[in-house]
Amino acid sequence: MSTDQHAVPGEAELARMSPEEKAAAGMAADHVELEEYGPVAVHGSPADKRNERSVAMWFLLAGLLGLLFAVAFIWWPHEYVPAYEEGQLAYALYTPIIGATMGGAILCFGIGVVQMARKIFAHEVAIQQRHIGMSTEFDRQSLAAQVMDTVDKAGLKRRGMIKGSLALAGGALGLVAAIPILGALIKNPWAERADSPLWVTPWAPLADGTKIRLTQIDGTPVRPEDLAAGSMATVFPGVPGGSKASDAAVMLFRVRSDTVIRIRDGQQGFQFGDYYAYSKICTHVGCPVSLYEQQTGRVLCPCHQSQFNLYEGMFPVFGPATRPLPQLPIELDDEGYFVAARDFVEAVGPGFWENGKFPAWYSEPKEATG
């Protein structure tokens, strides 16, 4: 703002001025000229009430969609259900529903704000000269007064419908922002103790002791002869939904017979001959590790370029990952197919505070042995 050729009120005078007087003084000092000014509709007239209902409708819709988002996020079925099974449709609709309700809440709130500016606030066309530099204290107070004067003249304090719907919409949008964080605190991840999801994967033997086969993505079980020397294949647990489980994908390697592999302490015998199985889930942020360079034995995570060395027990050798990929103990069943001898002995994927503290897992780091 520029206050040239206009007397700037002192602090004492500013304290005595009303918001309307500050607004008028600020406009005069700032060389603002109103070319057009006037209410959109006479307050209390049918047109004014119609405009108020129109604005309130958008805020109410925003609030309703925000509440629906919270309900769907917490209570809608989100656990994976295979195709053609009961409940699969509800599972498939989970992401579209939370996306549509959250997006709809934000969209309706934005439309409501635009409609309020067009239909409730007074219409004006103002011309002002630009200025350089920081505004004075008088300029800042007069600007704040102009904003409050605009709100007063729009009659928002008297419009209970708009105030209520705006409060509902604002609260619902705040809930939309907070619920993904708070929602994770509702369920206790340790409620099932040793069987809690962070400790157990679909590779764990069934209740009757049946061990889980290593299968291709189409469910075909894998035999040793299916892999050529020096190759790698991605396998999944042969259980319903195994190929979709976020912690289940495993890389099965067949190394050449003359290759020297360092075994991590406590994991001797996890391999079957020249076959080694490691989690495909990167220990950095959980991306799928997939690029295998046979000559160096390095496996690359394409997300953040973490590299793990197969020949060194899958220890990280480059990038942000700090923990090795967990190894899956494997053996053959009576029919000659690969099975998981048991579940992983360490948590799969990114680290978390309790990782390594639960008695079901080794508490000491697994250092490579020569």
TrEMBL record:
Q: What is the lineage of its organism?
A: Bacteria, Bacillati, Actinomycetota, Actinomycetes, Nakamurellales
Q: Which PANTHER family match?
A: CYTOCHROME B-C1 COMPLEX SUBUNIT RIESKE, MITOCHONDRIAL
Membrane-related topology note: Multi-pass membrane protein
TM ranges are 55-77, 89-114, 166-186
Q: Which PROSITE patterns match?
A: RIESKE
The GO molecular function terms of this record are: 2 iron, 2 sulfur cluster binding; metal ion binding; monooxygenase activity; oxidoreductase activity, acting on paired donors, with incorporation or reduction of molecular oxygen
Species of provenance:
Nakamurella multipartita (strain ATCC 700099 / DSM 44233 / CIP 104796 / JCM 9543 / NBRC 105858 / Y-104) (Microsphaera multipartita)
What's this protein's function?
Answer: Iron-sulfur subunit of the cytochrome bc1 complex, an essential component of the respiratory electron transport chain required for ATP synthesis. The bc1 complex catalyzes the oxidation of menaquinol and the reduction of cytochrome c in the respiratory chain. The bc1 complex operates through a Q-cycle mechanism that couples electron transfer to generation of the proton gradient that drives ATP synthesis.
Which Gene3D superfamilies does the entry mention?
Answer: Rieske [2Fe-2S] iron-sulphur domain
Q: Choose one Gene Ontology CC annotation of this protein and give it.
A: plasma membrane
Report domain Rieske positions.
Answer: 273-339
UniProt name for this protein? Cytochrome bc1 complex Rieske iron-sulfur subunit
Q: Does the keyword Heme apply?
A: no
Q: Which UniProt keywords apply?
A: 2Fe-2S, Cell membrane, Disulfide bond, Electron transport, Iron, Iron-sulfur, Membrane, Metal-binding, Oxidoreductase, Respiratory chain, Transmembrane, Transmembrane helix, Transport
Similarity-based family:
Belongs to the Rieske iron-sulfur protein family.
Localization per record: Cell membrane
